[in-house]
Specification:
Layout lengths: L4 H5 L8 H18 L5 E7 L1 H9 L1 H9 L12 H7 L3 E7 L8 E7 L4 E10 L2 E7 L2 E5 L5 E7 L4 H11 L4 E8 L5 E8 L5 H8 L4 E7 L4
Helix pairs in contact: 2-4, 4-5
């Protein structure tokens, strides 16, 4: 099995813990990329060890810094509270029990002028993360690849039609997972790809009758 340099030496980061700081910053940054930059307020609901020991590890500053667009290596993370106030971003932290999630987990809720968006994610070690929910929609992806997320009607042929469009644009699927609560209801699909994705292709996916929502997480941002 190949081992990357990242796995050997860990992430470049500000703070004492890859799980509580580097991973937390990535979770915040992922919330920003999924939900967008147009928000005026953010709430963090800390679960497990994030709630109990996170303050001493700088978890709150890292989460907020990530939401503001800072990377784990950015020295401004330690000043993220002051930076948010300068930007006019209101923020709050609360302890909660999210249920059966990894101990280093958080629910992040971003409030914009016209919409609200939320994610649940976990820092699983070594700076790596796992996103498990977007706006109440059960999903699962790592943020390591360009990722297309759909919400669609659970009908025969949807996966095949989506895959066919990706093939037409030369997009190779690294991982594909489908989630649903019950048969013939609403479902979600997570497609992690080996290539970046064009807006034209996303528009074609969105035009499919069965697709009700498309989210694209771009690794180039």
């Amino acid at each position: 099995m190949a081992v990357s340099l990242f796995d050997v030496i860990g992430p470049i980061m500000i703070g004492p813990s890859s799980s509580h700081t580097a991973g937390a910053a990535r979770l915040g940054n992922m919330a920003r990329r999924i939900c967008g930059k147009d928000f005026q307020r953010v709430e963090f609901f800390l679960h497990g060890s994030f709630a109990h020991t996170g303050k001493g590890h700088g978890t709150e500053k890292a989460l907020l810094g990530g939401v503001l667009g800072l990377k784990a290596s950015d020295e401004r993370i330690k000043d993220s509270f002051a930076l948010a106030k300068q930007m006019g971003i209101a923020f709050s932290f609360a302890k909660t029990d999210l249920g059966d999630y990894h101990p280093n987990s958080v629910k992040i809720v971003l409030y914009g002028s016209k919409s609200t968006c939320s994610i649940i994610g976990s820092s699983i070690g070594g700076g790596k993360i796992l996103i498990s929910e977007i706006d109440g929609m059960a999903i699962e992806f790592s943020g390591e690849y360009p990722t297309i997320i759909t919400r669609h009607h659970d009908e025969p042929g949807v996966v095949a039609r989506v895959s066919a469009i990706l093939s037409q644009y030369g997009i190779n699927i690294a991982f594909l997972k489908v989630f649903r609560q019950y048969r013939s209801g609403e479902a979600s699909m997570v497609i992690e790809t080996d290539q970046q994705v064009e807006q034209e292709m996303l528009a074609r996916l969105k035009a499919l009758e069965e697709i009700t929502r498309i989210i694209f997480v771009d690794m180039d941002e």
